[in-house]
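[agent] plan:
  1. take the single chain provided in the ticket
  2. run structure prediction with default settings
  3. attach C-alpha cells to the ticket
  4. add a short note for the reviewer (M.T.)
[agent] executing step 1
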Amino acid sequence: IVEYNPFTDVLTIKSATLPTGRAVLSCAENSQTYKIYCFGGAGANILDSIVEYNPAIDNLTIKSAMLPFNTFGLSCAENSDTHKIYCFGGSYNGTNNNNQIWEYDSSIDNLTIKNATLPTGRRGLACSQNSFSNMIYCFGGITDGGTTDQIIEYNSFIDILTIRPVTLP
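[agent] step 2 finished; step 3 output follows
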C-alpha cells in the first residue's frame, strides 16, 4: 500500500500489505469513516474479497462480506449522502462481463445485488459520484463485443439506471 500526499508530492510505502498481490481491483472511500474499501481484483487468481484499509492506523482487514463471484475490472463509487459504495460490472474470467450493480454497506459489512443492471456486461469502466446530486456516472468500458461509448447515470436512492443521450467521443 502506497500513500500519496498531494500537498508535498511525496509517496510513502505503508507497513500494512494486501494478503496477496492484485491488479484491476476497484477502491472507494467511505467519506464518513475515511476507510478505503477495495473490491475483487486479479493476481494468481481472480478474487471475490472485500478489503478494508484504515489509513489512520495503517491497518488492513479482510471483510466477511464477499462479492457474489470472483471479479476484476469493476468500478466502485460512494454515495456520499448514504456512505454506501456501489460497484458496477467487472469480469469473472476475462471474457465474460458482469452487468450487475452491487451495493456495499460498510457499517454492517453487507453486500446486496441491486435490481437495476447495466445495459450490457462490462469491465474497465470509470465511475464517479456527482456530490451535488448524489448520482453516480459511469463512462465507457469493455463489453463482451468490444468497447462502449455509453455514459450511464445511476440513482442509488431509487435504484434506477439511465443511459444518457450523449456518448463519449
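[agent] step 4 note for reviewer: The longest strand covers residues 59-66.
[agent] ticket updated
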